[in-house]
Amino acid sequence: MHANAFTLNGLICPGKPAKPWRMIRTSIPSRFAAIVGVAAGVAALSVGESAFAATYQVGPSKPFKQLGDVAPQLAPGDVVEVDGDATYSSVSLSKNGSPQSKITIRGIKRNGKRPVIKGGTNTIAIHGSHYVLEGLDVTGGSARCVFHHANDVTVRDTVVHDCPAHGILGADTESGSLTLDRVEVYRSGEGTRKHQIYVATDERMYPNAVFRMQHSYVHDSNGGNSVKSRAGRNEIYYNWIEGGTYHELELIGSEEFPTNLLREDSDVVGNVLRKTKGAFAVRFGGDGSGETKGRYRFVNNTVIADGGTKYIFRLFDGLESVEMHNNVFASASATPFTLIRDVEAKWAKGHPIVTGSNNWVPTGMKTPAQWTKTIAGSDPGFVNASALDYSPASGSALRNAGNNFPSSSSAAPFPNPLATASFIPPSRTIQAPQTRANDGAIDIGALEVGSRQQSKRAFSLEEQLDEDEMNLAEMEAALTDAYATGEPMACSVGSGRSRSLAAPTALVGFAVFAALRRRKRSRR
Questions:
Q1: Which of 105, 246, 270, 305 is the most buried (most CB within 10 A)?
Q2: pTM of the prediction?
Q3: Cα dihedral sign for 24, 26, 32, 33?
Q4: Which of 313, 234, 232, 233 lies closest to 273, judged by CA?
Q5: How many CB atoms lie within 10 A of CB 44?
Q6: Which residues pair with 280 in a beta bridge?
């Protein structure tokens, strides 16, 4: 072993072991030293499977040339960094992460370009659970560009496009929770049976599975629905969805499992749905092959009818209830449309439960008798509808006209609804989540007055530190005298692969950053 190295749990590590914090305590403020020591000490006591997670580097000039070269070696907590401005072959991910230590496949932009994963029958097939895929460009899979056949999978900051059949497809069996976060999908689907996004969950294996789609942009389909789901629960939040050949949103029942095995509910909040072709915008209930008998909640959405839209809601087969609050239903042309078609509906309780409040509709539109405080008009008052800016103008009838606390029917209360629309949809691109402006009274629709000008990026480090400082202070007070090493180490176990003390290093880094920030605040 090289003289300037040491061993740690059988691994060869460069450098020298770090000094105990007590030995260097006089060189930095004692409070600061205590915080760092506490964090490292706690981490040392709680090192788990992710402590020695591997980082793999994939790229034309990196030790691994293809994702498929590292996929068989992956373990919980591992990170795969894939160089951008390069194209890679299809890959199957079958190794499992864990709930605490997910496996991350991370695209690293080069020259402003994501890594492109291209081709194959399934371009990326996810058979292993507990994964995060981020920063990728996925295209060209002859059957599916992304195939979800696992549980606890997140795909974020990723573009899926030009898929001749399905864009993103979830298997009917052995599939659990899936989150799509800041995902763009376009030019995918075919005919009426292949879709841009088509998700299902295994209701026996994962009865509590959730399909969540948020902050995403789906557009310009080549066929099918923009978003179709047979999941046990759907949470469709803050998306811009347009250009579906069939429906923009189809939330229906499983065709694999018995109808009465699980009631499938859907919470749809804060989206722009822009119908540019086809007769129907949204279908709830079933499609003739599977029905939910579920509860549907549709809140603070902006729905724009265009391109021959005849109906907004197509209620079909078995469902229990639909509630609609704070939505704007507007036309981009003079062509009239109907709000609800329910002649094919089969109500689970033998009668319709359709409620709502504070919705805006065109003058003369027929609305459910149970709705309250409906606003009808000739113009909702968007800032610039021709430029697709559907924010309410300052003098709009939508301004401050919403219901801050919409409630369900007592006959069908919705379980665990999103409390309020706190973000706005993306501006037809992938971008960081943007907070919704708040002047006390919520506006009708997916956007607030001034939303595009006043919104800010969410989840900043500053905000995260604000939330976590209390816990850090409690830890500091309880364990001030703890000792641990504080220098990060990288220990080689093979070409192109390193194992790092990820948990201790992360916690130490957070402690240092937070301590410096608190010191700065105290001097203001």
A1: 105
A2: 0.81
A3: positive
A4: 313
A5: 17
A6: 311
